[in-house]
User: Fold these one by one.
Assistant:
Number 1:
Amino acid sequence: MNLEQLRGFVEVARLGHFTRAAESLHVAQPSLSRQISTLERELGAHLLRRARGHISLTPAGEALLPRAQRILAEVAAIGDEMDELAGLRRGRVRLGAPPTLCVSLVAEAISTFHDSHPGVDLHLTEGGSRMLVDQLAVGDLDIALITASDARPPHGVTLSRVALLEEELVVVTSATNPLVEEGAAVGMERLAGLPLIALDRSYDLRETTDAAFRAAGLAPSPVLEGPEMDAVLRFVERGLGVAVVPAMVLTDRPALRSARLSNPLTRTVSLAHRSDVSPGIAVATMRDVLVRTAAAFADRDPALHSVMETEPRRARMAGRE
């Protein structure tokens, strides 16, 4: 058994197709087929069911897949750490986060990290929590910030999650043409009567908002539905309507004002990584920066509540007491 065989098997399992997997790996399709056949022969078990136009996993293949992914992720982590220790390069961090965090907490954390570690290669992936969990599971990400508690990895993969923040969802309006009073408590019935700009249904917080309306027996009709977060905020700034968004997106948005909901809606921001893969030095450092940045955000915004207390924050709180 060798790493090329495992990479080939994992890619075929991911894509369900030999030709596409070969193209992804930049190898010839017959070579990839031979690798898989050799792997099956060495293990004494069929790993794939070969049907016209589609490949599926046998029970033996399903058992091997999470272990193969873990081995490949560990090999990548070893390479990164050896590069760091040898001084050849300072490592790599592949971070994932929902778009609502990329424009706030993540932007500040990456800026802080890059100032101190400019030689580290940074890769940021935006996406919903479920997509990010899937990418963690297959080793495409090192760490991710996730907000959906029901996002679960595939069978055989375990994630370590650390809750950082509990964040309120707030109603945002234009600062120049406000539709709600800043600091007011807005009920769901009043919110349903306002011109509402709704996020795309792929956003986890859209489902949270819709569920709150359903629980109140309300079914508002948005004036605009489906734009991404940055576009939503720009439409609100121009006075088209209001939106329900996480409190952190107000960072560096002076053209917006916010009001809290009378029955608060919240989401928990957690930091996740594969529990069976040891993070390299660069990844561990980025994780610490994210924890400190989250605590700093909670210190300056009453709509954010720190869940994980860092040592400096505990010391400050003790000093206040």
Number 2:
Amino acid sequence: MEGKAYTPDEVAQFFQISKHTVYELIKRGDLQAFKVGNKMRIEHSEIERYKESTKAPTKKMQDPLPNTQTSQPISLSGSHDFLVEHLVKQAAQDLQLQIQPTYIGSLEGLMMLYRGQSDIAAIHLLDPASQEYNLPFIHQLFVYESIAVIRFVSREQGFIVAKGNPKGIESFTDLTRKDVQFVNRQKGAGTRFLLDSMLAKNGIVPTNINGYSNEEWNHLSTASYISRGMADVAFGIQSAASHLGLDFIPIAKEQFDLVFRFTNENKQNLINIINYLQSPEFKSSLTDLEGYTIEDLGTVIFKTSKMEETLC
């Protein structure tokens, strides 16, 4: 059974949910799937992983952080990342605090935060003009709100290729070769922002890239195209390549931040999460760090004047 792959209908029956909900979970990146022809399939191990992630937490810290408030779940929107998944899991275990993620890409996640539809946005958006990450977008969108931007991690972005790099991918120019098939991220994803900026910098027209219009919604599903031989190269994070035993060619280091929008209802929970990010307990729980740098984890890199007294 371990190697069996299931259809969305079978997964829907297993979890007693609608088929449309299964497709939404796949679209958001909560459930990893792959394609056989034009049919979607979900591996048994992925079903088990998702089932475990939905279980109620039982572990508690010996010394819980003070002022934990559990009545209101926290909504997180934005970019998918394996360490964000880890934060969601650890917050449930150690803080008894439910963080509900919606992985829809950095730009859409930030817009959800702007509209008051989430409490935290996970973003890595490169501003082409300043070549600065995240803060230019924050300054444009949030004027009167109570906002804090917390550094989460730095990540390696680059080319994800098959083991041994059989097509000899070395540069962005190689993406325009006729014998190279590319798979892209969706519009609004931080990785797509970085890719398009790099293409423009190298004078490459996207229509010259085979597969540029073929979009996936998270790093693992994009990398799975390479592992299954459906594409030759993707642009993504090193940890996705490592998860699937693929090779990785580093191109750039990016800043991945968490943006907190405070309200009277969520303020205490958000403060608890920030304190937890800065705690030795959380940092020591991070073990799979290939492609990541966490030396600035928990650093407050921006806060509005309304948050001066709250966050020091």
Number 3:
Amino acid sequence: MTNQTAADRLPAAVRTYLATPKDELSPLVEQLFTSDVVVHDDGQTHVGVAAIRAWTEGVAAAFTFTRTITDTTLTGNAAIVLTRVAGDFPGSPVDLHHHFSLADNKISALTICT
């Protein structure tokens, strides 16, 4: 019998999103997100694959950071993941909630907040 962590039980798209370094995420956007995805982060809203790709590239260019999953909640087609994010950005480290909605095994919405 293997011991699964809470992160192991996350949907594959969420697990991959959280485990992939930000500077390697851009090529995976179409694989992980629905075409009409909506992401809310840092007071901005990004809609669609092209906007999500630009958002991931902008974050990767601006900051270096690591994420550690500290808690997860799964319910229906949603996952709420609490992460400790530490890096070279103002206020580091910070605990962030990632609220994922899923459709067709892809992320259809993501809200990142404190």
Number 4:
Amino acid sequence: MKISREIKTAVLVLSGIALFLYLFTYLKGEDLFSNSNTYYTEFDYNALTLSSGVTVKGNKIGKIEDIKYDFESGKTRVAFSVTPELKFSKNSIVRLYQDGLMGGNALAIIEASDGAMATSGDFIKSEVKPGMISSLEKNFSGISEDLGSTLRSSDSLINNLNAMVVDESGDGLKQTIAELNATLKSFKTVALNANKLINQNDEKIASLLDSFEKTSGELAIFTKSLNEADISKTVKDLDAMVLKFTALASSLEAGEGSLGKLLKDQTLYDNLEAATKEMELLLLDIKLHPARYRRILSKKEIPYEEPTEAELNNN
């Protein structure tokens, strides 16, 4: 089959137009063979271009599709497309921010954690984040005034320091530095004397340290001996002994036992005292009249006589 020249020409022209459109969209960053979801938002003014990007956490996922001015609301309506793989809430925020120091702007999707998923064609709320350059432009007058005030204060401070340095009086900085230098020299002298004293008594200091180390070792041995001596058991035994003495004193106080009765029974005490008195008189009589007791087995009985007052006093 023979193709006419007109058909070949038409095919060639259409192919050229298709290639031109593809290259044009490719240079704009678009892909004719990829699909995307389109969403809408609006701002009080236009600071975007069709080349501005759309990002999520710094990653580019879309671009601006259309920018139109809405005459009814007086706001700029922006259409932007993102890759269909991105799923975000309808309650998310589209933020206009400054992308770089040269003043370029872009859109960022600040994802929300609640609400239904946004679908293509939904309207998303927007906000504007002031850029560094615009903030400096707004506050430049205040910054310049503060800078001028700071420079004037710095100039006054430098003048005052200069006056202090030039001042030769007692309040001057030179005098203060001189006194500080004298103090440092005195301190250096004291340090040298202290170093000399340490060098002269080096042997004594070493001996003192050795003695301290020896004493510490002996103290450690003594402490170990106390631990091995089971002081706690000795204290417990002493405590038990004190409890027994306390119980014995209580029984004596109550008049229990022979010793308790002896301490508490007045009659027994009087009898013992009388018996002791008679025993004393018997011993005195034996001393005064020994012959009487030598003949104790004899038939002749010698009657007992009370000792006289003089005999009692003499003995």
